[in-house]
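Per your request, structure below.
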């Protein structure tokens, strides 16, 4: 019996252990199955107890463990959704109703905040329900964009139109967790035909601009050809100016041939231009405007030809005369500048020489004044004394060269002073010479008595009188 009980207990223990292992295996399998990996084309939304203040936890890529009982999960598909939005009778800024057929491509956004909006507003909805929500948003914003723009802007500036649509629609779609991937406006129509008229006007304007451009290019080509021919004729004429008479005759023949050729070419061009104008006018039903533009271009070409043949050579001659005149003026100006520089150099040299002479004289006078004991009067006396021989020489030479062929004297003898008329004549003549006493007086000096013209006898008597004050002087 004891053995039987032991065997039963052992079997019960084994069964218990097996059940425990089984339950552990089941729990492990359950936990493994609750670990969810998020595919790249989906968003994993975990809801339930995910944290305070959060309604859901969104994952794009990666993996997360879903707790049993307190948490659950769903996926949001990221596959793009294509919507055909045909806006009809939308009022523009000019109150013109237009039809805007378009196609929008949208999808669920993967940004952090926008994924939260998608989890709160789109989780559990079918594809048709998401499309309906997106269409309502797009219709409303598309009407607002059309109402804020003119027909001209919508028709001509498609980039601005698409930018306004993208900006307006994107902001509203993000509120529900969607984003705009692409927008394509297929065509725009209006019931009044205004857009079609704008297209026709633009086409006509483009055609007219093209025709005008062709006429301008033709005019430029004619001007260039005329300039080239002018240069060629000028150079050929200059080169052939030294040729013989036979070459001159050949030039005349060439000129006549060129003139005939140009006349025929002009006639052919005129006929071809007229034919093209007529055909273009019939094809485009704009004959009057085309002929007016063509006439303007033709007159401009004729005017350019006249300018190239007449005015341009005159302008060249005028420029040549002006250049020659400027060259002559420049030569005169340079010659005058050279002469002025030579005069200035000579004047500067003379000034330097005078300055050196005056400087040396000043230095010599300064030394004379110092030699005279810094007395200016004595210094002046020294200078005059140094020049005294020259002064006496000049005084004696004053009557040296006087030529007297004959002197006739009538006299009765001696005069009252005991002198004869001849002696008085010679004495008066000598008195005409500037006296040295006056020169010395002007210099502030006293001339010695023997140079004043007094005879030695008077000097002797004056000397005796100075010694004997009681003796009377001789008469």
């Amino acid at each position: 019996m004891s053995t039987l009980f032991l065997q039963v207990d052992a079997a019960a223990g084994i069964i218990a252990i097996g059940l425990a292992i089984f339950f552990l295996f089941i729990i492990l399998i359950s936990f493994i199955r609750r670990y969810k990996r998020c595919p790249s084309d989906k968003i994993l939304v975990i809801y339930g107890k995910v944290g305070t203040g959060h309604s859901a936890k969104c994952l794009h890529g990666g993996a997360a463990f879903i707790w049993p009982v307190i948490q659950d999960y769903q996926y949001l598909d990221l596959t793009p959704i294509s919507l055909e939005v045909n806006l009809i009778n939308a009022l523009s800024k000019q109150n013109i109703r237009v039809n805007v057929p378009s196609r929008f491509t949208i999808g669920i956004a993967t940004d952090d905040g926008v994924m939260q909006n998608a989890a709160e507003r789109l989780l559990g909805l079918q594809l048709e329900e998401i499309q309906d929500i997106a269409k309502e948003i797009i219709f409303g914003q598309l009407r607002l964009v059309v109402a804020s723009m003119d027909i001209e802007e919508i028709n001509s500036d498609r980039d601005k139109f698409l930018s306004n649509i993208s900006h307006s629609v994107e902001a509203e779609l993000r509120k529900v967790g969607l984003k705009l991937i692409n927008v394509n406006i297929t065509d725009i129509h209006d019931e009044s035909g205004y857009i079609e008229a704008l297209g026709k006007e633009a086409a006509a304007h483009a055609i007219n601009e093209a025709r005008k451009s062709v006429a301008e290019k033709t005019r430029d080509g004619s001007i260039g050809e005329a300039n080239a021919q002018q240069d060629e004729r000028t150079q050929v004429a200059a080169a052939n100016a030294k040729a013989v008479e036979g070459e001159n005759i050949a030039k005349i023949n060439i000129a006549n041939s060129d003139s005939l050729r140009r006349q025929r070419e002009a006639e052919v061009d005129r006929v071809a231009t007229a034919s093209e104008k007529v055909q273009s006018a019939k094809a485009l039903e704009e004959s009057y405007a085309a002929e007016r533009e063509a006439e303007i271009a033709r007159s401009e070409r004729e005017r350019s030809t006249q300018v190239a043949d007449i005015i341009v050579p005159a302008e060249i001659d005028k420029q040549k005369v002006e250049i020659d005149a400027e060259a002559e003026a420049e030569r005169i100006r340079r010659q005058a500048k050279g002469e002025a520089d030579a005069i200035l150099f000579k004047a500067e040299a003379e000034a330097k020489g005078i300055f050196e002479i005056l400087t040396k004289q000043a230095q010599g006078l300064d030394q004379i004044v110092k030699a005279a004991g810094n007395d200016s009067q004595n210094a002046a006396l020294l200078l005059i004394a140094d020049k005294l021989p020259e002064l006496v020489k000049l005084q004696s030479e004053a009557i040296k060269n006087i030529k007297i062929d004959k002197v006739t004297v009538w006299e009765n003898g001696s005069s009252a002073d005991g002198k004869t008329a001849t002696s008085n004549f010679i004495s008066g003549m000598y008195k005409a010479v500037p006296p040295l006493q006056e020169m010395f007086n002007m210099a502030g000096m006293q001339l010695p008595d023997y140079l004043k013209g007094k005879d030695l006898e008077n000097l002797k008597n004056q000397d005796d009188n100075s010694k004997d004050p009681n003796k009377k002087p001789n008469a």
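The longest helix spans residues 287-371.

Regards,
D.
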